[in-house]
Design brief:
Number of strands: 15
Distance between the termini: 15 Å
CATH architecture of the largest domain: 3-Layer(aba) Sandwich
CATH class of the largest domain: Alpha Beta
Number of domains: 2
CATH superfamily of the largest domain: Alkaline Phosphatase, subunit A
Strand order of the largest sheet: 11-10-12-1-13-14-2-15
Largest sheet: 8 strands, mixed
Order of helices and strands: EHHEHHHEEHEEEEHHEHEHEHEHHEEHEH
Helix content: 25-40%
CATH topology of the largest domain: Alkaline Phosphatase, subunit A
Strand content: 15-25%
């Protein structure tokens, strides 16, 4: 049996008047999602415990089979693992976004204009984070480049008492109430304020302004955490597997769980990602020696954070047409028995632009045990109607792989 989990990040949503009072999943044309639901098991799963923040970190940790209440230490350590940054037990890592803030003279009175600085290119970002490292790096604090707007800061022998806000949660808001809190928070605030002076007049940003693009004029520090210790996935489930994703968070989670990562050219984490390439990489790995693939697609979540309704619909349909259909067709031809789990890790409602904690739909299809219920659709309402509900999200992977 071959197993593949397909995660459409942030696909779940609320009904919207402009979508005929439907959710994005209900409104989008998803015949391949719906076929999995009709021919498999459909239900709801709570991926985020009530006591934890509704992030892609906690949600994907849960979906991949680890109890967040036991193993979650923060977001950035997963990204550190993906970037090859080794954390010592006393190190605290932080996500370091390149963001666009508005131009008010007082730093606290600025607004979060763009949490991703117009999806700044890797080439531009490298110049900027290198300058930040040069000006703000110390023996205690290191900066590490990631991709686009997503970067990393590591504080050696740091305190671990912080209250930090994800920048995508405060789009358009004044930042004063969302600046770092906690022990030595003044030091983080100072670095963020200094970064504005360093970056505002940097040639990269001056050129971006000339081109009508958002400048990456500040860093934003959040997502603190220490290195987690995850039991190997191979020991939990007795199978060899890989992760396919464009984002360091999910790749790092896979690496910390002992899974391989498969790089796909053109995988961006946005709506322009290489859907076909991801599907082809998954098929190739399953046909060779992999038992399990965790295929993560970020695009719907990014569209929600930007309030891009039309693009979220497109992203969902691209996953349906270019990923699910292709994978299922190729696995049918291969002759393998296989199981597919379709899931969204968490909801990211277009009306809010941020993550929420509601249970989300999942569908499990097994080629050796097909069902037949044409009334089932892969959406929130249909999943609710089945009355199948997994309270502890990390147990869903047991259900999928152990065929409970």
């Amino acid at each position: 049996m071959k197993y593949i989990v397909i995660v459409g990040d942030g696909m779940a949503d609320y009904p919207m008047e402009q979508l005929e009072n439907k959710t994005a999943l209900q409104y989008a044309r998803t015949p391949n999602f719906d076929r999995l639901a009709a021919e498999g098991e459909l239900g709801l799963v709570k991926t985020i415990p009530e006591d934890l923040p509704p992030g892609s970190d906690t949600a994907n940790l849960s979906v991949i089979g680890y109890d967040p209440l036991k193993y979650y230490t923060g977001r950035s350590p997963f990204e550190a693992a993906s970037l090859g940054v080794k954390l010592e037990p006393t190190d605290i890592s932080f996500r370091c976004n390149l963001v666009t803030l508005s131009t008010e003279e007082s730093y606290p009175e600025k607004r979060m204009s763009d949490y991703c600085a117009g999806e700044i290119s890797n080439e531009e970002a490298i110049e900027l984070i290198t300058e930040i490292s040069k000006c703000l790096g110390t023996e205690e604090i290191d900066f590490h480049r990631g991709s686009n707007y997503r970067h990393l800061m590591v504080w050696h022998d740091a305190p671990d008492q912080w209250d930090l806000t994800p920048p995508h949660d405060i789009s358009g808001q004044v930042i004063s109430d969302h600046l770092p809190q906690g022990k030595e928070s003044a030091r983080l605030r100072q670095m963020m304020e200094q970064s504005y002076s360093i970056l505002s007049d940097h040639p990269v940003n001056l050129k971006r302004i000339e081109q009508g693009l958002n400048p990456a004029n500040s860093i934003w520090i959040w997502g603190n955490g220490s290195k987690p210790l995850l039991p190997p996935f191979s020991e939990k489930y007795n199978m060899k597997g890989s992760v396919i994703s464009a984002v360091d968070l999910v790749k790092g989670l896979g690496l910390l769980a002992g899974l391989d990562t498969i790089e796909v050219e053109g995988a961006t984490g946005n709506i322009d990602t290489n859907y076909n390439g991801k599907a082809e990489a998954a098929i190739k790995a399953l046909k060779e020696d992999q038992d399990f693939i965790y295929l993560h697609i970020e695009a719907p979540d990014e569209c929600s954070h930007r309030f891009e309704t039309e693009n979220k619909i497109k992203a969902i349909e691209y996953i349906d047409h270019r990923v699910v259909r292709k994978i299922r067709d190729e696995l049918e031809k291969s002759g393998f028995e296989y199981s597919i789990m379709m899931i969204t890790d968490h909801a990211t409602p277009l009306s809010l632009g941020t993550h929420t904690k509601e249970p989300v739909p999942f569908a499990i299809y097994r080629s050796n045990n097909p069902k037949d219920d044409s009334d089932r659709k892969f959406d929130e309402a249909s999943a609710t109607g089945t009355k199948i509900y997994i309270e502890e999200g990390y147990r869903l992977m047991d259900r999928f792989l152990k065929q409970i």
